[in-house]
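SUBJECT: protein chain
CONTENTS: sequence, structure tokens:
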Amino acid sequence: MLEMMLSVLIVVGALFTFIGSLGLARLGDFYTRLHGPTKATTLGVGALLIASVLYFSTRGEGLSLHEILVTLFLFITAPVSAHLLAKAALHLRVRSLAPPPLEAEDPSGGPRARTGD
């Protein structure tokens, strides 16, 4: 039963990692390319690390904390780094394939002033 669960986690992890890497190579612009490594690859590496924790914890050596620390570090740093990369791209005005948002209108009929810029 353990071998079956480990096999499923390894295959799922490999598939997510492959899909994330493929998305990084194939998507059209910088902003959409951020989704590959931060979403799918994070899930893929997370599944592989969970499989590693289960394997080494059941070998009789006790709970394997190395993989848990790597997983925690990965889940904290991947979204933060993607956010910082996206903010830097916005600051540098990197073009996107998505159309710009329409200006929101004020109930009085004029364009609403943007705040926070």
The mean pLDDT is 82. The chain has one domain: 2-98. Residues 78 and 90 are 18 Å apart (CA to CA).
